[in-house]
Amino acid sequence: MGSQWGRDKVYQKAMKQGYRSRASFKLKEILERNAVLRPQDNVVDLGAAPGSWLQILKENTSGQIVGIDLNPIQPLEGVITLVGDFSKPTIVARVLDLLPVVNLVVCDASPKLSGHKSYDQARAIDLNKMALDFAIQVLCPGGNLVMKTFQGEDFPWIYRKVKEEFFRVTTHKTHSSRKGSAEIYIIARNFIAGREDLFDAEVQEEVTDSGD
């Protein structure tokens, strides 16, 4: 496995630039091409180990950042890390205690692959559902979600589920993904819950402007 990583140019580039994994460039690209993170947003990173996405988030926001993983995450200055299962109510409650507002939830987690495609995708979709449930519980109105999933027969189901909760949902395939990989990212913007007043205000503003 070491030689495989050694031949990976993206991995070598990540190490040279001080990032903890090649996945750092995936989030870099997503943030460059999708307006999901503002300079002072608070963010929660699910499945955050080893911490490369936390590094990129730290570069792009001065807000509070919380990383959660089943495994310990090497400390990163200015970032709070929690060890635990993000689907558990105790972790959700801890995040809500730490962050008065959550603007963005990101999740690059994936299950340990068995090599059986249909089984692996089903497990990945289960993980997606847990990440979506977490986001629904913590996101502020108008918040955003970035979540890795995998293309396959179950993908339309999770995509529809996300669309039920967000006003705008698209997908993004990163250049840093390995050739032939089925991974794809769901980019969900403007969390719907509690947005009625904001939406009405936006409509009123458009009406007022159009009368000038």
Structure description:
The chain has a single domain, classed as Rossmann fold. Helix 3 (24-33) packs parallel to helix 4 (52-60) and helix 6 (117-138) packs parallel to helix 7 (155-163). It has a 7-stranded mixed beta sheet, sandwiched between helices. Helices cover 42% and strands 23% of the residues. The termini are far apart. The protein has helices spanning 2-6, 9-16, 24-33, 52-60, 89-98, 117-138, 155-163, 196-210, and strands spanning 43-46, 65-69, 79-83, 102-107, 139-150, 166-172, 183-191. The model is unreliable at 1-7 and 195-212 (pLDDT under 50). It has 212 residues and is α/β, with parallel strands linked by helices.
**CATH topology tier name:** Rossmann fold
Quickly name the level 1 CATH class: Alpha Beta
Any idea what the radius of gyration is? 18 Å
Give the % helix. 40-55%
**Helical/strand content category:** alpha/beta
**Terminal Cα span:** 65 Å
Q: Name the helix and strand elements from N-terminus to C-terminus, one letter apiece.
A: HHHEHEEHEHEHEEH
Q: Widest sheet: strand order? A: 3-2-1-4-5-7-6
Largest β sheet strand count, sense and barrel closure: 7 strands, mixed
CATH superfamily: Vaccinia Virus protein VP39
Query: Based on DSSP secondary structure assignment, what is the total number of beta strands?
Result: 7
Estimated share of beta-strand residues: 15-25%
Overall 3D geometry? globular
Give the name of the CATH architecture: 3-Layer(aba) Sandwich
Low-confidence stretches: 1-7, 195-212
- Give the count of structural domains: 1
Helical segment tally?
8
Mean pLDDT across all residues, rounded? 85
